[in-house]
Amino acid sequence: MCYGMHFAAKKLKPYFQEHPITMVCTAPLAEIIGSRDAYGRVAKWAIELAPYTIYYQPRTAIRSQALADFLVDWAETQYLPPAPDSTHWRMHFDGSKMRTGLGAGVILTSPKGDKLKYALQIHFAASNNVAEYEALIHRLRLAKELGIRRILCYGDSDLVVQQSSGHWDAKDANMASYRFLVQQLSGYFEGCEFLHVLRNDNDQADTLARIGSTRKAIPSGVALQRLLKPSIKPSPESDSIFVPAPPEEVGSDSRAPTDGTRIPSDSSKNAAVEASPGTSVLGPGTSVLGPGTSVLGPGTAATRSKTPELGPGTSAI
C-alpha cells in the first residue's frame, strides 16, 4: 500500500501538487508513513510524500471500495483480443508438387460458414512455392470479383506468408515478382491479412492440392481450374519456373529467310520435278546443275549449251 501511494504520487505529480488527496484504505498508512521508527524504503517514500497534502481515512463501508475492487479484479478483461469481425472471409491455400505434376488447392469460407472449394492443375514446370503463390493470386482475384472487402489468408508456407506480409525480402527474381503482384491485389481490399498456420490446420486445402497435382478425378462440389502459364513473366535469372518452347518453334530451320519467303519442303520439290520434266526448280532458265543446264526427262542426256564439237569417231561417254 505504501508503494502504491508512492507510485501514484510519482505518476500523478501535477494532481498531487495542486489538490489535496484523500486516501481511503483499511491499513493504517498514516501511522506507518509518519512513524519516526520507519527505515529503509518506507522512510524514503515518506520523505518523498511529505510535500503533498494527503489525508488518510479508514474504510468504513465496503460500498465505497466496491468500484476499485471491481476494476482491480477485472482489469485483465480489457486486454482480451477483440472478436473477429463477422464480415471477414477466410481463405486457406496450399500447393503440391508430385511426380505427376503441380497443383494447388484453395478453400474460401464466408462469414456464415459456407465453403467454396477449388482445385488447380498447373501445366508448367515450377517449384512448390510457385504453386502456393499461384493459388493465392488466383483466389485473391476471385475474391475481388465476388466483391469481398475483408479477407484473412491462411497458408502453411512460411516463406509465402512472410513475403506476402512484407516481413521477408524475396531474393529470387520470380518470388519478387509474385510478391509484388500479391501486394497489388491486396491493396484492393479494405482489410487483407496473411497468417501462417500449421500443416495440420490446413489439411483440407492440402487434400485439394494433392488432387490437382496427381490429376485425380475431381470430387463433387469442387471447382477445377487449369493453369497453362504463370501469372508473371518468368525471369531468365531464376530456375523456379520453366516454360517449354511452343511446339512450332521446336526444330525450326535456322536458315529460314527473314523476308517472309517460304521455302518449299522436300516433298514439294519432288512433286515439281516429277510433274514438269525439263523445268527448273529454282526458277525459269536456271538449272540445278549449273548455269545454262536444264533438268530433262528420262532418257535424255544433260549437256552444256556450249559443249565443243567432238571429232569423228569420238564417243560422248
From TrEMBL:
<feature type="region of interest" description="Disordered">
    <location>
        <begin position="234"/>
        <end position="317"/>
    </location>
</feature>
<feature type="domain" description="RNase H type-1">
    <location>
        <begin position="85"/>
        <end position="214"/>
    </location>
</feature>
<dbReference type="InterPro" id="IPR036397">
    <property type="entry name" value="RNaseH_sf"/>
</dbReference>
<dbReference type="GO" id="GO:0003676">
    <property type="term" value="F:nucleic acid binding"/>
</dbReference>
<dbReference type="InterPro" id="IPR002156">
    <property type="entry name" value="RNaseH_domain"/>
</dbReference>
<dbReference type="InterPro" id="IPR012337">
    <property type="entry name" value="RNaseH-like_sf"/>
</dbReference>
<protein>
    <recommendedName>
        <fullName>RNase H type-1 domain-containing protein</fullName>
    </recommendedName>
</protein>
<dbReference type="GO" id="GO:0004523">
    <property type="term" value="F:RNA-DNA hybrid ribonuclease activity"/>
</dbReference>
<dbReference type="Pfam" id="PF13456">
    <property type="entry name" value="RVT_3"/>
</dbReference>
